[in-house]
Amino acid sequence: MDNFAFIVHAIDISDVFRKFKFLKNMPEGIVEKIMEKVPPQKLSHITGVKSPYNEVEGWFVGCTLTTRQMMRLPEDFVIKKIIQTGKLAEKLGAKIVGLGAFTAVVGDAGITVAKNLNIPVTTGNSYTVATALQGAKKAAEIMGHDIKNADVVIIGATGSIGRVCAELAARECRFLTLVGRKTEKLEQVAEKILRDTGLAVKITSNIHKALKKADVVITVTSSVDSIIDVDDLKPGAVVCDVARPRDVSKEVAEKRDDVLIIEGGIVEVPGDVNFNFNFGFPPKTSYACMAETMILALEQRYESFTLGRDLTVAQVEEISKLADKHGFKLAGFRSFEREVKPETIEAIKKNAHKKLLGSQDKTHQGSVKNEG
């Protein structure tokens, strides 16, 4: 049977405690030291991934480092740990392995890992981009925004995912702002978009300023800490957070009942799939990066499809077609491990409308006072 493996890791220390409950009473620093020594883990056997054309099985394999460790430990050590996890996938018989979360970001984004394995490697970023854009566009429509005339902001626009998100968004949007830390790199992305589409985009390194007028936000940074705060967003804004760890602080979701925050890249997997592992999603749904690995196995495309930081629009378009062929599709919206139900979105729309009316009344009252 055709098959695949996918590498996962603990986003934070609480994920470690969920898997290894006996470590819960130990100091976090000690637990992290222990995890550095723990070998890669086979976490589950995945069954039932089935399209009209093929059926595949797979495995989740665990790289025993948290996101914080991957950011702080020496890069060579982290990459070696990821390679060891890939070797475990090989031993299980996997014909292709996908890199999840920060394993797809560290170092050269999978190139060194692929060179040290005997099976192809993919980061899943191509399908992540495709579904992030689909999700953001669908959510915008539900919230009453026409994507063509909305103020769209891409945060992390100089990264591999953000850059291609920007290039694809520029085909549909009239008002696009790119945000990144390095102005020179932003200018390069903006110039390419101008050449390819004729759209002149705005660029800035000031996230908070860019968000003040944004109707739709796609955020795809590799920051360890959240970068979008409670007061950054205007009422009625839609935020598609593709980043892991999240770019949007949980406080935003708790205190802003007038903005729609969704997780990017969540898809419904065809077949009677059983992941045999709880990563916080409803049955038969997964991250798009996981799905890309499954799609390639179903298609028997055992190649390093998405690797490094040179992601292209052509790759995104190709994996989108293959996903459609095999029956993968955008799942319902989720936010902070919970389903976002239609009634919740309606409530958000009403709250946004009230706040906008309130701010307009204050503006009107202020102008009346000035005239007086």
Your description of this structure?
Helix 7 links the parallel strand 6 and strand 7. The chain has two domains: 189 residues, no CATH class; 163 residues, NAD(P)-binding Rossmann-like Domain (Rossmann fold, 3-Layer(aba) Sandwich), CATH 3.40.50. Strands 8-7-6-9-10-11 form a six-stranded parallel β-sheet. The longest helix has 30 residues. With 372 residues, the protein is an alpha/beta fold.
Could you give the topology of this structure?
Blueprint: E1 2-10, H1 13-19, H2 28-37, E2 41-50, E3 55-66, H3 67-72, H4 75-92, E4 97-99, H5 111-115, E5 121-122, H6 125-142, E6 151-155, H7 160-169, E7 175-179, H8 183-197, E8 202-204, H9 207-211, E9 216-219, E10 238-241, H10 250-255, E11 260-263, E12 266-268, E13 285-287, H11 288-298, H12 313-326, E14 329-330, E15 334-335, E16 338-339, H13 342-371
Parallel strand pairs: 1-3, 1-4, 4-5, 6-7, 6-9, 7-8, 9-10, 10-11
Antiparallel strand pairs: 2-3, 12-13, 12-14, 15-16
Helix pairs in contact: 6-7, 6-11, 6-12, 11-12
Key traits:
372 residues, alpha/beta, Rossmann fold, 2 domains, five-stranded mixed sheet, 13 helices, 16 strands, 42% helix, globular
Morphology = globular
- Give the % helix: 40-55%
Q: What's the alpha carbon Rg, rounded to whole Å?
A: 21 Å
- Spans of at least 5 consecutive residues whose pLDDT stays below 50 are none
What amount of the residues lies in strands?
15-25%
Distance between the termini: 80 Å
Instruction: Tell me the major beta sheet.
Output: 6 strands, parallel
Instruction: Count structural domains.
Output: 2
Order of helices and strands: EHHEEHHEHEHEHEHEHEEHEEEHHEEEH
Total of DSSP H or I helical runs spanning 4+ residues? 13
Strands ordered across the widest β-sheet = 8-7-6-9-10-11
Structural class: alpha/beta
Give the tally of β-strands: 16
Q: How confident is the prediction overall: mean pLDDT?
A: 91
